[in-house]
Amino acid sequence: MIKFNNVSYNHPDGTNALNNINLDIPEKSITAIVGNNGAGKTTLVKHINGLLKPSTGTVSIKNEDTRKSSVAELSRNVGMVFQNANHQLFADTVKNEILFGLNNFGFNEEFVKERYEFVIELFKLRKYESISPLKLSGGEKKRVCLASVLAWNPEILILDEPTVGQDELQKTVLLKFINQLHSNKKTVIVISHDIEFLWRLQPNIVTMSEGKIIEIGNSESIFKNQKLMERVGIIPPQIIKIFEGLGIKDKIPLSFEESCTIIKNLRN
Amino acid sequence: MSVKELIRFDNFSFRYNSRDAKILENINLSIKSNEITVLAGPTGCGKSTLLRAIVGLIPNMYEGEYTGDVTVDGIKIRDAEIKEIAKRVGFVFQNPENQIFMFSVERDIAFGLENLGLEQEIIKKRINKIMRTLNITHLAEKAPHELSDGQKQRTALAGVLAMEPKILILDEPTSLLDPKTAAEFMELINSLCREKGMSIIIVEHRLDLVLKYADKLIVLSEGKIISDDTPENVFNYKKDIIPELSVPFSTKLYRKLAKNNMKFTKAVTGVEDMIREVMK
User: Fold this and answer.
1) Is A155 on the interface with B (CB under 8 A)?
2) Residue A36 forms contact with B (CB below 8 Å)
3) Which ipTM did the prediction report?
4) Under CATH, which number does the domain A2-236 receive?
5) What are the residue boundaries of the structural domains of chain B, listed by start?
6) For B193-231, how does the pLDDT look when each residue is reduced to its tens digit (9 = 90+)?
7) What is the DSSP string of A161-194?
8) pTM score, two decimals?
9) Across the interface, do A170 and B178 touch by the CB < 8 Å criterion?
10) Which CATH superfamily is domain B5-237 in?
C-alpha cells in the first residue's frame, strides 16, 4: 500500500533527515512510529501525503509515485492530523472548520451532512459548533482537527501525537475509533510518545533514530527489547515493567483482566 | 527548610465575558513552598484558567466576572502589577516555540532579566548559572531553530528560572518530549524544587510520568475542585475517581485487586510500589 524505496531526505539547508528508508506499510494495518525527538518521524509521514518529496529514492501510494501527484490529489486518500493544532485550524467556527474539507472535495450534500453529524457527535463538539476553534482549550482543538480530517473518510489516516492534551475518556474514544477504522479496512499510521496508549492499541511498531529505521515488530517484541528502547528514547509501558519486576518475562498478559488474575495467583 | 504558603485561592470564581457559564466556581486551595502539585482533569475543566489566575493573565488580559481572591506570595493578584507577579511566578507554556523568540539561547534567557531592570553584571551571572544548572551552556550561541524539542524545553525553562521565581508553573511540559527525555526533565524539575524550596505546579494528563514526584494531586472537574490530597489518598480504592482521569496502569490494577479483597499496605501510585506490594 505505502512503499518507501531507499528514501533519503535532506532539508533545504543540507542537513540529512531521512537516511535510506525502506518500509512497506500494508493495506488495512495499524502502524505506530516511535523514536526520540528529532528521529525523523514527522518527516517520514510527510512523505506519505506528498508534503515532502524524497531527495533520493521513491515513495509510492498504491503503486503511484508521490512525485507524480499533487498534495491535493494525495490528500483525498491520505488524511493527516498534525501534532500542533494551531498549524491546522483556520476557519471562523468549528462547523466551518469541519465542513471545509468536505466541501472542498466536492462531495454531495447528503454525504456532507451525514459525515458532519457523525463526527460532531463522535468527538462531542456539538456545543462548540458556532465558536471559533482558536477559542477552545488545547485538547478540544485537537478534537476539532481529528473531526475535520476523519469527516472526509480518507483511506489512509496519519495521526501525529493524537493523544496530547486528551483525557482518559477522549483517549478511549480515539482508541475505539482507530480500531473501528481498522475494521472498516482503513490504513492507520500513528506517531506517538504515549506508550501506555500504544500498548492498548497493539499496532505494528516502526522504531526510528537519527533518520533511520532501527527495527520493526509487534508491540510486545519491541517494548520488551530493553536495548532497543534505550536507543530510541522510549520507556516500556508499566505493564511490562511490573511483570518483568515480578519475574514474569516470557508471556506478558494483553488484557487488564488477565493481569489481575496473574497477580492474584502470585499472591496466593 | 521552612515551609510557607505561596498560593492561596479564597472562594474564587471566574466567568469569561465570551461565555455564559462560570469556568471556575468557588475555588479554595493552598499551595506551599518545597512542594510539587499536579493539576489534572478533563479537557475544558478549567485547568488553564486556574493557571491564568495565578500568573495574573486573569484579570489583566482576559476580561470577565471575577469574585473572591487569589493571593500569591502575599500579594493580591487582582490589584497587583504584572511586573510584581512576574518576579514571583514563572510560566513554561505547553509549546516552547510560543516562548522562545530571540536569536540565540543566551539572548532569550537575558530577555526576561532585562525586563526586570537588573544590572548587566547580575544578568550575566544569572544566565551563566542557569545555563550550567540546565546543562545548556554549549547551546548559548545557538538559534532557536537549531535546537531539538528537548533543548527548546530547557531553554524556555532557563528563561523562566533565571528570574528566580518562587513559583514555577508547567503546562504539559513533557507533551512534546520522548519518554526518556521526559523522565530526565522531570528528574531535573524535582531536584530544582527540593534544592530551592520552590513551589511547582504541573498540568499533566500522563500521570504515569509525574506522579512519583507529586506531593499533591488536585483534580478539577467542571470548574470545581473534586480532590486535593496526596496521590495515595486520591487513588485509595475506597474513593471514587472520575473516568476522565488517566490513572496509571499500576494504580488501576491496585484499585481493582484491592476492591476484590487483596490486602495492600498502601495505595499504589507507581510500578515500584506495585512490585513491592505483590512480593510481600
Assistant:
1) no
2) yes
3) 0.84
4) 3.40.50.300
5) 5-237, 248-280
6) 999 999 999 998 889 889 999 999 999 999 999 999 999
7) STTTT--HHHHHHHHHHHHHHHHTT-EEEEE-S-
8) 0.88
9) no
10) P-loop containing nucleotide triphosphate hydrolases (3.40.50.300)
